[in-house]
Amino acid sequence: MQSSSNVDPAAGRDQIDVERALAEIRAGRPVVLRGEDPVLALSAEAVDGETAAAFAALAGNGARLVLPAPRLRRLGLADRAEAGAVALPVIDPDRIEALALRLDGRIDAPVAPASAGDAAALALMALAQVLPAVLVVPGEAAPPGTLSVAAEAVARYPARQAAALRPVSRAPVPLAGAPDSEFVVFRGGEGLRDQVAVVIGRPDLSGPVAVRLHSACLTGDLFGSLKCDCGDQLRGTAGWMAQHGGGIVLYLDQEGRGNGLANKIRAYDLQARGLDTYEADEALGFGLDQRRFDFAAAMLKALGVTAVRLVSNNPEKAASLEAAGLTVVETQRALGRITPENIRYLTAKRDRAGHALDLDAFACIDV
């Protein structure tokens, strides 16, 4: 059982407040963010005729739609580098959907700088893994009984979650190609989601350990989607570790580069209409990659790992582990199938995010 002797009571209350706020946002209910600029925030996903009417009654002239910089660029503000707010003199669900989500949406009004409260509301949407667009009205308009959370608590939540990471269960789980494997489940790190370390074989913890940080991919890992190489990398790495002295696969609940499953499928729809993987995420309002790996480093340290031989094509993973105090002695590629369905995806990862992928031999594939 976890000891509470070293837990800061104020920090604990803040974490509970954020967790409750995340549940409210995902359920389509508004939350007050307290601070110098208190706001009442509702996910744009939850705006329909009923909620629009309720917010209109509260808002006076203060309603606005807060959007991140990538979405504003998609709407036509090519050089926009910061989040901004669009005034909503009338709270129209169709207009909100066009500005927040539609591929053909275009900015139709001046965009004001996002306030501190606006930024905190966007941060809460990111933690909740909903669409990064939020309907905001002044906080004092909130109906009695509305859940509230300090804006500072939202900002501190990820780091506090990483610091509170702890193993909660473990057991042998024989895998195809890696029968001597053990699953160690950790709580903390990313929101309310559990994370898994798969210890393959008997890696020597006194030296560099083969490690893969693998972000969960429901479509590729479980269903064998041809749009990515994730499942191949996962199973191929586990089998390779079993034959080469063991290792650790961290299976991290960071679907869709940290955007969440619903947003990943939205991005897939946009890819089907001609955008590449990063263009699709940007059209939805996301940056290049929302994932964090500080908690992955904490998991490795808890398992006794201090030095890593990283199995990855992504240079950001090595940089993140080193920034967290681990030694990355080498990086080797994680191989997967290259197919007509995923060649454009892999090319975008190489060209946009610097992934170490050799695709020249497949240049003849029509993308």
Describe the structure.
A hairpin with a 2-residue loop joins strand 9 and strand 10 (193-200). This protein is α/β, with parallel strands linked by helices and 367 residues long. It has a 7-stranded mixed sheet with strand order 5-4-3-6-2-1-7, sandwiched between helices. A 7-stranded mixed sheet has the order 8-9-10-12-11-13-14, with helices on both faces. It has 13 helices and 14 strands.
Distance between the termini: 53 Å
The overall strand count is 14
- Give the biggest sheet: 7 strands, mixed
Sheet with the most strands: spatial strand order: 5-4-3-6-2-1-7
Which geometry do the CA atoms define?
A: globular
Mean pLDDT: 90
Low-confidence stretches: 361-367
Could you tell me the radius of gyration in angstroms?
Answer: 22 Å
| Topology pattern, helix = H, strand = E | HEEHEHEHEHEEHEEEEHHEHHHEHEH
* Count of individual helical segments: 13
Structural class: alpha/beta
User: What percentage of residues falls in helices of 4 or more residues?
Assistant: 25-40%
Percent strand:
15-25%
